Structure formats: C-alpha cells, structure tokens
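Q: What does the assembled structure look like for these inputs?
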Amino acid sequence: MIGYYISLAMRSLRGTPILSALMVAAIAVGVGASMTTLTLNYMMSRNALADKDDVLFAVQLDNWDPHKAFHNPSEMPWQLTYKDAIDLLRSDIPSHQVAMHRWGGPIALEGSELRPYTVEARVTSRDFFALFDIPFIHGGTWPHAADNNSAYQIVLSQRTNEKLFGGENSVGRTVNFNGAPFTVVGVIEDWQPSPKVHDLNNGDFLESAEVFLPFGLHRALEIYPWGNTNGWKSEDINSYEDQLGSEYVWIQYWAQLDTPEQMERYRDYLTGFIRERKAQGRFPRPLKFGLSNPSEWLALNEVVDGDDRMLSWLSLAFLLVCLVNAVALLLAKFLRKAPEAGVRRALGASGRSIFSQHLVESGCIGFAGGLIGILMTLVGLALIRQLAMGHMDTVASMNWLMMLSAIGLAILSSLLAGLYPAWRISRTNPSIYLKTQ
Amino acid sequence: MLELRPILSALWRHKISALLIAVQLGLTLAIVGNASVVIQERMERIARPTGVAVTDIVTAKFMPVAKDYDRLRAFRRDLDMIRQLPGVAAATVSRVPLTGGGSRTGLHTKPNREVGATSSAQFWGDEQLVDALDMKLVAGRDFTASDITETSFSSGWRPSKAIVTQQLAGELFAGGEALGKAVYLGDEDNPIEIVGIVERNLGPWPNAPDAGNAVFYPAIMDTQWFDYVVRAEPGQRDAVAKLLEEKLAEHDPQRVVTVKTLQEQLDRYYAGDNTMIKVLSSVAGLLTFIVALGIVGLTVFWITQRQKQIGVRRALGATRSAISRYFLLENLLIAVTGILIGVAAAQIFNYFLASEFDQPALPLSTTLSCALILLGVSLTATLVPALRAANISPATATRSV
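A:
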C-alpha cells in the first residue's frame, strides 16, 4: 500500500509544483538552520575522555586571595602553583597523575632542508600518555627521573614525526627545539580531542600539542608558559627561582583514581595537604579543593557557551515557524485536492486510508526537504568555519549520524505538520464533490 | 472600508489557516525582534573606537632558534633598522593590544592596600609607544628616551612613571585630577607617578568588563611576549608588512618571524561576535522570507478557491480595486493579530534570553519597528496575488453556476 501511496504522492507533488517547492524549501531551510546549530552544539559537547569519566579528575586547590574568590563558577583557580604541583606529584595514591602546561617554540632539524618552524608544545610529567590513553607508535615516555631533573628528551606527535623524519622510526634521533638539542624517545599517534578537554584554558577547539617535553626542564630552560598565569598578590620576583616559588597559578593537574578507596584516600590527602600549607601561612581561604571528572570539567569550563546554546534554542524556534508554515501550505494543498479524495472515498477508500495517503505525501515532502536540508547544513557549517576564523574548524563538520538525524528531523517535522491537514481531508464528505463533478 | 463584516465572516470559515499565518508572523516577530537587539549590541561593541590606529599597524613576532639569545640587543638593533624603513611612521616593542592576550594588574591610589584595587591592563614600551599605537595624548607628557629602562619580569624592577588612559584616570581618581598623582601596585609602597594621560585604549581584551583601563610603563622587557608594533604611514601598511618580513629575516636568519596586521588580529578577536551577527541576520532574513512565501502560497490558494465569489462580486459591480482591497484588508487583519501575538511572544522570549543567557533587554521601540517591517512584508506578499485576483473576469461567475 505504501508504494501506491508514494506514487500517488509523487503525482500530486508534480501536479502542484510551486506549492510543493515552497513546502520543500520551507522544511529544508528550517532543517538546515537547526541542524547547523545542533551539529555545532553536538560536536562541542563531545567528551573525548568519556570512557575514563569514572577515573580521571582535574585537580583544583583554592589557593587565592582571602578577600575575593577566583572569578569562575567553581570559585577556585583553574590551575595550580608550580610548587604545589611538584609536591602533589610525590603522592603515591593516584594510579597516574599529570602536572603540565602549554608551551611552544621553534623546532629545527640539524642538517635538514626544512626551515625552522614554530610548534605547540606541552611540558608535562611522564604519565601524560598513560593517563590519557595515548598509544605510542615508536618508543615510549621518558623515565621517572626526567620529571625532576633536566633531561633533554622529547616525544613527537605522528604529524611532527612525519614532517621532520618522513614518518620513519625517529627514536634516538636528535631535534633542535628552542635552541637546545633533544633526543627523541617516542612518537605517539595523533591525539586531537575536540573540545581539548585536557587543556581548556587555551582555546577549546584549537589543535593539541605537537611535541611533549619532560616536567623536569623548567630550571634548565627557564620556561614561562604559553598559557594563562594568574596571581593575586604582589610578589617580589627577582629570579626564575622566585617565579617557581611564587603563588602564581599556571600548572594544570590531573589524577587517575581507579577505586572509591583511592578516591577516599586522595580526598584525605588533599585535606591534609592544604592544612599543612595553612600552618605555613599559605592558603588563606577556607579549605576547599575540587576533583572534577572530564564531563564535569567540560561543563565547569563552559565549553558550550551561552551564545551557542542561545543559537540552538533560536534555531529550534526557527524550525517551529517553518513547521507552522508547512502546516498552512499542506492544508491549502490538500484542500485543493479534496475532490480527488472525495472520489476515492466514494469508491470505497476508508477515512483512515485517505489519512495515511496524505501523511505519506507529507513524509515525501519531508524527505526531499531533509536532503536539501543536509546541503544547507553543509553550507551553513562552511560559512561558520569561515566566520570563526579557525576557532571552529574541528567542530563545524557533519558526520553520518548528524546527516541521518537531519533526514529524521525533516521527516518527523513534516509528518507532524501533515497530521492536521491529513485528518482534515480524511473527514471530507464525498457527496459534495461528487455533486459538482 | 465597510467590508470588515464580510471579511470577518469569510475568515471565520478559514480560521485555522488564518490563525496559522498569524502564529507564524507572531513567532517570526518574536525571533526577529530578539535577534535584532543582540545584533545591535554586538555591532555597537565592534564599532567602539579602540584608541589605536588599527588599520595602519603591523606587528612582528620573532622566536630565536638559538639558545641564550640576547633579545634586548635584538630589540635595539631591529628597532633602529625598522624606524629607517620607508613608509614607517613609528615603531616600538611591546605587547600588542586588541588581540585577546595580555597582562592585567590591580592599581591602588594609596600605598600598602590589599583590597579595593582597580583592575587594569598593563603595557610596556619605549618613547615611541604612544606614537606607534597612535594614541592621543590629552594631558601631561609622552615618555622620553631618558625614561626608558631595559629589564625583565624576573628582575624585581618597578616602574616610577606611567601613562594611563582617561577612563582609568577617572576610575582611580573619581572626578579629580590624576596627572602628577601616584598609583601603587598591589600592597606595595612604590609610588608610580602618572606623567601623561591618553584618550583611549581598549587594551588586550576589548570584551572584558575592565576594557578601556590601561596603564603604560616606560620599559622594554626581555620577554618572548613582546612584538614589534609598527605604524605605517596611511596606505603603506601592506608594503611595510612585506618589507618587515623580508628585512627581519635578513637582519638575523636564526629565528622564526611572524608578521601580522593588527586589523587581522582584531578581526580574529571579534570572530565570535561577528559570527553571531551574521548568523542572526541570516536567521532573521530567512525567516521573513519563509513567512512571506507562506503568505503568498496561502493567498493564492484562497483566491483560487474563491474565484467564483470574486466573479460574482465583479458582476454585481465591485471595482477591481475593491477586490484587491478586500484581500489586502483581510491580510492586514491577520497580520495585526499576528503582531499582537508577536509582541507578547517577543517579551516572553526576551525574558528567557535575558535571564538565561545575559542578553540585552528588548526595548518596545525595537519590537515595534520590526513589527512595522513585518507588516510591510506581509502586505507586499499579498499584493501580487491580490492584484491578480482583481483581473478575474466577471464572466467566471456566470460560466459554471
């Protein structure tokens, strides 16, 4: 029966090309606009670390101005001081833990044709790769000692290895980074979570680091981070050592706590950690720390911001207008075809079959609208990528799931729109039309 | 104009279709009204004067490839070279304003205070800083070569002189004279004398609540965050950018040089606001278009349905204009109903947006101007079918009865 209804629908659509085109256009535009913003929101609210949501925690300590809480929803600084990070690393409670920050500099290869270029770097303790489950293609991470003493070792991303060494196993080779020779100890598979859940202080959707350096290099290289450094009191900084010993916060910290007991112990440990420092006259605010798993961390950092959410509400309202529009047009179209329905009724078709016939027709309009809607979404996303000037490249793209949802949304909305007009026409009294024919 | 009664009774027979059009218009008004306040707010934000010659400035960053690079020496040598280049009006080395990256501090008007600081952006530069950014000095004096110190952030150096923006001066010394007064950093007692006041500078973060508060210190800092800020003579920017890239690489090949225009960096900073403006305007435009299509579609349908009645009216002596007027009036009734729904819906939407997303309040005047535009669109959309209806010949009435 469905096949027959579809062929009837096709014939009917061909019969009123302008009205049909208007409806398809209305649904396509509505679907295009809402899918553009819904895709953005969907891509922005992804969590690359969802499978480790139970065990990974971003660590915050409330070491801030006694007179004024840190200005964010958690009322705690996003990052830690260097000295606290170093002390936390000594704990043996977490299965893995990472102290890190963003950095960067020019990279070059001795005796190579390649011109030196600037790369994004991450200065981190060795557990980074284990904690975030990043597989190595060659080699591995640096030894424990490199987290405390300067060791000129470097881990490259696959892309960097491709660029510098043509993709061959480069473990043991030397690269020049920021003027110093580094030995390659490992090459990792490319890891580009988007949003960049491990580092939400430096552009949520920008690219991740291309090289990784041990945390023990700070003193040797006098590293100042490429990221936010926040302070709350004026301090005499007369040397790099003063910078490391200051109350400035600039280190991001993650811990992996696999069991509830570990969690319990770590909470006790952090409480003791802050008490100890309070006794030394630091941590002037009430005792407070934060352990947020990746999804909480994404929410806390407002990765999907007010503008994005507002746009998705707006586009749903847009779709609603398109729907109302489709209802009005469908009603007009069906009523115009009422004589045909009258004849079918007179020939014995039930009210229900007239109803389904017209619902199928609405569905066909929806399907066509959905296909064109996908095209419009792709155009919309391309425009947004261009307007956002690189901020959105990783999120403004459509996958199969979103394409199917677009078709689904279009069919669903056109069926909804078709309900009343189809019901209306199915209640036609055939006698009126038989009389005038 | 006495046709209201027949129109109303005819509309009553099509109440669902008529209501659908009215609801469409109402929702459109609610969306377009709210979109236009947001658009207006963002456009005003972007159009604010920056206090800086955005269109003439080129910035250059370098990163040395060699270790233990003498950055201060490179700054001196490069600046000497840059200032000689043709088309360059002024040049300094500083952090670049309006880019979304910078440094912020808290200033006090009394020494040794812990609370109540005024938040402000801070910049460092040499005697050409004010000139290179093309800021207007409104009081006091500019820095001179003898004011400038070469130092670094880890040296413990504290400034003794500063230039501030008018806005910061006003916030620090409410109403009073700021020139010659001292300000203090954090809980320190080192006085920093305000020697000059510039008209305006939006600082590193133009969208921050403290944007416009900026303090400038006479120093060149040994830091990788300092870029050359070069102001070109009007119309010379692109030539200077090209020259700068060439000459800096030539001057010292052991570094990676990146040259950008300030305009490009400011555009990038405002990219989010700009996206909102463009997306909201297209939404408003498309919606209006869709509604217009809907109105055309429905009016055409009604007219086809009523062909016979129109013919009868014409045969009974109604003029062409009376027929067109009938449909226009009918549409006006629907549109006014829709707009009444829309004005209420717009306020409800706005209440939601303001409480949920901190959007600006929707003034009635904006709603009304959007309503007028929609009314116009609605009538225009009816006009073509209504004029066509007037052409229906009276003969139609007699033919098929």
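Chain B is about 50% helix and 20% strand.
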